[in-house]
Every structure is written in structure tokens, then in C-alpha cells.
Specification:
The chain is α+β, with helices and mostly antiparallel strands and about 625 residues long. The protein has 3 domains: about 160 residues, Immunoglobulin-like, CATH 2.60.40.2380; about 220 residues; about 130 residues, Heat Shock Protein 90 (2-Layer Sandwich). The strands form 4 sheets. Strands 1, 3, 4, 6, 8, 9 and 11 form a 7-stranded mixed β-sheet that branches. Strands 14-15-16-18-17 form a 5-stranded mixed β-sheet, covered by helices on one side. Strand 14, helix 14 and strand 15 form a beta-alpha-beta unit. Helix 3 packs antiparallel against helix 11, helix 5 packs parallel to helix 9 and helix 11 packs across helix 16. The longest helix is centred in the C-terminal third of the chain and has 77 residues.
Amino acid sequence: MRIKIILFNLIVLSNLVFSQKNDALLIDNQTTIYQIQNHIQIYQTPHKIHPNELVDLNSSRIYEGKKNDFSQGFSQNYYWIIFELENPLNANHALYLEIDNPHIDTLELYQWDDQNKTYQPLYQCGDRMKFYTRPVNNRRFIFPLNLSKNSISRIAVMVDKRNASVSFPMKIWDKTAFDKHEETNNLFYLLYFGGVLFIAVFALTIGLIMRNFRLIFYSVYAGLMGFYLFIALGFAFQYIYPDSESLNNYIRSQVMILLLISFIIFTISYLNLKQNHSWGFKIQMTIAAILTGFFLLSTIFRDFAFDNIVILLKAVYFIIFISFPVVVWSVVKIFKKIEFQPRIYIAAVSMLFIGVSIVNLIEFGIINEAVIPVNPILIGSILELFIFSTSFIFEIKWINDKKNALLKAASLQQKELIKAFIQGSETEGNRISKELHDNIGSRLALLKNQLKRPSINYEKLNQDVSEIFSEIRNISNELSPNSLHILGLVNSTKSLIDNLHLASELQINFFANETIRLDKHVELQIFRVIQEALHNIQRHSEAKIIDIQILKEETNLIITIDDNGKGFDLNQQFSGNGIKNMKMRMDSVNGLFDISSQRGKGTHILLSVNIDS
């Protein structure tokens, strides 16, 4: 009697188990990848149970999950996925079960044993276990399945991802096809992370060279974006900390916070919010400060953060939810002020925003993850970085072209200044030659005639010789003022002013706060500029008063020359060789030459040269 009851119960149990299943997934020798979504049954339980308990579907501890959907949304339950694989071939078949979510806390795989009428455990691993517990060394969860010839295998998978979004996208692979696909897949990720690293390093290098903070902040943002995806895709757990079963979620949350901070700082810099939208700048800085506080607190109280990682992540998501409207508001506000940066910013950030939105919809179970072949954030980040990087490349090219144009213009101006200097030197030479010929020469001829006379007025002769000697000395001083080397710039300027005062009715006010000696070449060039300026004032300005100051201020020597003359229009007369000659002389000593003038308001000349070296 007991044997009959046992056999009856086994038959009922077997019928219950088989009545639950969908159609078995048929395995052939042609297909390389099998979509299993329509061949699974999903159950959820508030407490962990043994898969054998799933035969009693009337149990209050068992609920059906969303049918044929790998994305179940946020839940505090355990999930069970049951499916069958049928191998009609007269040969064994090696398969891989792929679960493409590297952040599942615990996964347990069971296989139905027809002889014992129970599920036998095959594998146990997860994000909360050391990496080497995985049966295949892969960032995702890959489980080998060996199907015997002409057999049906029933598999049960327990998913533990409580207090978070539960998703378990699954595929069945032919083992050989999976190995080939993984080579291509790894090459793609190698190119992606290598490209992100190159962008970050290149932007940082150019930013430091050009002192462009937008590029520096962009390099930090790009680097953190790449590192966050390196963690989110499971590579960090595989290659950086495989022995730490509790670090993965914590590191991911911390890097997410740093990524958000860098994104806000980059946004502020890229859109120049401090100048273009002060309120947006203040709010964004406040959000960045709050995130920084979160990061520091979760770093200091790491154990508490480990135990409440879900609360921490929800707080970060809430801050993201707040900050996004602020960013949109800031962009709208400055759109009328500047056009280029907001357009690029909107186009780039929209790509990432779409990717993040799709992931959030998957996490809440609104979109089935099975229909998304590639991580949406990964695609969004690729497009975002491409748009930003391209815009920066064009911007750098524009700056470089502008710099080359300025260098070309400066080169042409330098040639003009050299030409003006040569012309000025020739003009000065012609003036002195004319002075020697017309004045000194004619007076010497008269002196010669006086010597031929029978009676010579020696007193008059002596006076004429003295005057000629004095004029020759003045000309010599103009050509090479030896007194400058002896007396210095300040005293030589005083002497020049005294001579000009005697030869004209100009009132010249002179002040120097310190007698300072400079390099001979520097003193000579400054003296020539002062000499040229006074000469121009005397000839052209119709001024009555001239004020000259020589001041030492910290590491600079400042000379100002002001007159109350009639002034002139710089736009019309700046082409004069005298002014070009003065600028050329100051450029030769790495000094500054600045002139300003208005008609009827006189002229102001400023000279400045560094004396620290």
C-alpha cells in the first residue's frame, strides 16, 4: 500500500513539474546562439527555497513573475527561472548559458535528476562571492551546460538581487561560437577603453599646455566615464579586485558620485555658467558640494555604506533627478548669449541621457532588456565623447589657425617696424649729413675765408670756433651719447631736458623717484625713445608744457611723457616712422610702448621695461 502511495505521489509530482514548463528549447547543430526568452518560466519567493518546492504552485510562498521578461524591476524577492533544453542529436552538445548582468548578488544553477526526481546543484557564484567561484573566467556569468545525446535537460536558476532592480538577460550559446564571439567582443572593449584613455590623456596634455581648464575638466570627466563603465560592465571585478566580494557595489557607487561631480564641474566650465548664468552656477556648485559630502561620508564610514549601499545609490539617483532640470534651465538661459557651446552640449549630453533613461526603464521593468543588444550607457557615452572630442578638435584647430594668423600678422608688423627703423636711421643720417654740410661745412668755409684776410679778428674767430665745436659735440652726442654711459638714464634725461629748455620756450617738468642703472643697451634704447618723443613734441605738437616721469615700481621701470599739445588721430598717423621707430626700440628690449592721443587733448606716452632680470 505504501509503495502505491509513493508511486502515486511521484507521478503527481512529475506531472506538476512537467505541466509548468513551456516548450523545450530545441538544440540543433546549425544554430550558434539561442534566444531562450519564450521558453522560460519565472517565479518569485519572499524567502529562499529549494527548487523542488516549485512543484507546488499553490504554495503561499510562491508567486509568478512577469512572464517571458528578463527585467522584473525593483524587488525584495528571490527569483527562479526554469527552462528545458532538448538535444535530439545523436551526439553530445557543449553549450554555455550566459546571464549578462555582472552585478547579481548570488546565482545558483540546478539540473533536474530524473532518477532521483530532484534538482541537483551545478554552480553557485555571484557578485557577493570571490571572482574565482565562477565556472568560467568572464566578467559576465557564464555556465557550461553539457547535453547528452537524445536527451532533455531541465535547468533551474535562482537569482538573488534583493533590494535592487532585478534583471537577468539570458542566452544559450554554442561553446565554439561563444569563444569566437568573445574574441571580437573583447577587441571592441579594448578599443573603447583604449580610446577613452587616449581622449583623457590627450585632452589633459593639451589642456595643460594651453592652460585651458575646459579641456582639463573634460579629461577628468572622460576618464571617470571610462572607469565607471569598466566597473559597471564587470571588468574591474575580474581584473582589479577579484578577491574582494564586498567591494564591487561600493566602488561602483563611489565612482558614480565622482563621475557626477566631474560632470557638473565640466558643465560649469564648458558653458561658463559663472559668467553666463550666475544662479545656475550657484545651484550646480551646491549640488557638487552635496555630492562631495556624500563621497567623503561614504568613504569615512565605509562599513555603514557597505550595509546601506541601496540607500546610498537611491540618494545619488535623487540628486541626479534634481540636477538634470537645473542643467536644462541653465542651457536654456544662456542659449541666447552664446550659440556654439550650448548646441554642442545639448547634442552630446542628450546621447548619454537617452542611454541612462533606457537603463532606468530597464531597471524599473518597463523595457525588456532582451530587446537591447548593447549596454545603452556604453553607446550613449561613445556618442557623447565623440561629439565633445570632435568639437574640441575643431576648437583647437580654430585657435591654432587664429594663432598662426596672429603670428603671421606679427611677423609682417615686425618687418614693417624693421623697415621703418632702417628708414628712420637713413632719415637721421641724411639729417645729420645735411646739418654737417649746410651748417658746419658752410661755417668752416667762412672761417677759412676769415683766415685769408690780412687782418684777423682773433676774438671773433675764437667765438666761431667754439660755436662750431659745440654744434659738432651736440651732433656727436645725438649719434652716440657717451654721457649716457657715465651719467645714467635719469641724469642724461635731465641733461637732454636742460638743452631742450635752452633751445625752446617749452616748460618741462621732470620727476624721478630713484636713480637706477640698467644694461647699457636698454638705457640707450629708452633714451633714444625719450629723445625721439621730445623731438616730435617740439616739432609737431605746439605744446607749451611737457611732464616727464621716471618711476621704479617693484620690478618695472615706468616712464611717462605727457604734453598739452594739439594731439592727433592715431588711426590716421600711426603709420609715421617716428612712432614705429620708438615701438621697435622698446620691442628690442622686451619693453612696452603705448601711445594715446586725441585731437585738442594732447598726447600720452607710456614706456615700461622689466628690471628684475
